[in-house]
Amino acid sequence: MSKHHVSIDFETMKHCAAERGCFYVSNKAYNFIFVLDFPRFEARFSRSISGRLITVDFDDFVKGSIGDPIFRQILSEQQFLEFQKIRSGDAVVRNRRLSDFLVEENYLLTAIGAGEKTILTRLFLLPIIWKRLRKKIKDSNIHFL
Q1: Does the first or last residue of the chain, that is N or C, have fewer Cβ atoms within 10 Å of its Cβ?
Q2: Over the stretch 105-123, which tens digit does the pLDDT of each residue have?
């Protein structure tokens, strides 16, 4: 969420997910709702939509090309084959994951309300980012020779 100028405290997120089955994140442009315990919300969600509800567990959702189980249910066989042809020609990744360094930098800029990056803010944040990345590596039990 660092691309969206949002800082998430993971302990708070875990608590909200356990207590409520979801958590909310807002920024200037969006209100995100992350539903992590879908069975808890399924009946209420079904009542608020006009069409049919399609559910797919995560393991099935990511088999083959992501989303295929849903597209197979909403498209005819002919439409699905056409869709696969179109999709296979578009291999550009539009939302590439940022490096760990840029994620940390974005979170810190958001946390201190610095706005845009400048050379001065980057120099100020560099030791903090370095320390946080070292802790992340240490906590993950990754060892380098």
Answers
A1: C
A2: 888 888 887 777 888 888 8
